[in-house]
Design brief:
Blueprint lengths: L3 E5 L5 H10 L3 E5 L6 H6 L3 E2 L3 H7 L3 E4 L4 H9 L12 E5 L5 H14 L2 E9 L1 H7 L2 E6 L2 H6 L1 H7 E6 L5 H30 L4 H9 L6 H4 L1 H4 L7 H19 L4 H14 L7
Length: 277
């Protein structure tokens, strides 16, 4: 009999991740606040339920939370009719949302002190395309024993899993490091292409050069997708992470001037409209 894993948050990232869990042989007990996704989810073979209580009751050992932020995670776990309404024991919430490190640690402490659940953090990188392909990079933190025991779940949705220690917030630090470097690199590629355009150099040939030269990067190799990011999609998420990284630097007196510049120049460099205030 296949293991049942709970999955809360079947959005742009969550849905394909859940699909890959299903393909790997797990039974997905799915829930989303947006009921419009249910028909699509049921067609994909998920066992959809109407309440978070049912998710907690039916999941064998783990529930993945792929909701947007801290407030939504608190509501999923502690809210009226949330996971705790089932009084679950010996189960783990795998928070795959992106939070700041301190907030993730606070969430972990709140779960540990106010319930019989365990929490581990498992931030992901790779975007919607990585979620669909099952090639996400997964940055984990929390109980090492539990993280290792859940490796089959991580293998179903990603290509690489990394462990960063017992503090849940550590996985979020790793993601901020990755996204800070991504943001700096995006600014560099966009500005380089801008200079080439000024001299009427064909953009495709510049990208071909970079791919086989010292300017190569993930951004270069995926520029056709990255260049389409907008304020309504991945750019706003990246900006949030760059600002979070800046705030961590201020808090801990870690100088990161390239990150600060990238956060202010991101939309200008990309030639995109800034998010509305």
């Amino acid at each position: 009999m296949s293991k049942k894993i709970g999955f809360v948050g079947l959005g742009t990232m969550g849905f394909p991740m859940a699909v890959n869990l299903k393909k790997a042989g797990f039974e997905v007990i799915g829930y989303d606040a947006y009921k419009g996704v249910y028909e699509k989810a049921e067609a994909a073979g998920f066992s959809m339920v109407d309440t978070l209580k049912e998710v907690a009751e039916q999941a064998d050992e783990a529930i993945i939370s792929m909701v947007r932020d801290y407030a939504q995670n608190v509501d999923v776990i502690f809210g009226e009719n949330g996971l705790l309404s089932a009084q679950p024991k010996n189960k783990t919430v795998i928070v795959m949302s992106t939070l700041d490190p301190q907030t993730m640690n606070e969430l972990g402490q709140k779960v540990e002190s106010e319930s019989d659940l365990t929490l581990i953090s498992a931030a992901v990188s790779g975007g919607a395309s990585g979620a669909q392909a099952g090639t996400l990079s997964i940055m984990t933190a929390g109980s090492e024993e539990i993280v290792k025991s859940f490796q089959p779940y991580f293998d179903a949705i990603g290509s690489n899993t990394f462990y960063y220690g017992s503090e849940p917030g550590n996985s979020q630090v790793a993601k901020l490091v990755n996204n800070m470097i991504l943001g700096v690199n995006m600014n560099a590629v966009a500005e380089g292409l801008k200079l080439g355009k000024h001299y009427n150099l064909p953009e495709e040939e510049i990208l071909n050069l970079l791919k086989v030269s010292t300017g190569d990067s993930w951004v270069v190799r995926n520029w056709s997708d990255v260049s389409e990011w907008t304020a309504e999609t991945a750019l706003s998420v990246l900006l949030k992470d760059l600002i979070a990284t800046y705030n961590q630097g201020i808090k801990h007196n870690v100088s990161m001037p390239f990150n600060a510049l990238s956060s202010t120049q991101l939309f200008d460099s990309m030639g995109k409209e800034k998010p509305k205030a």
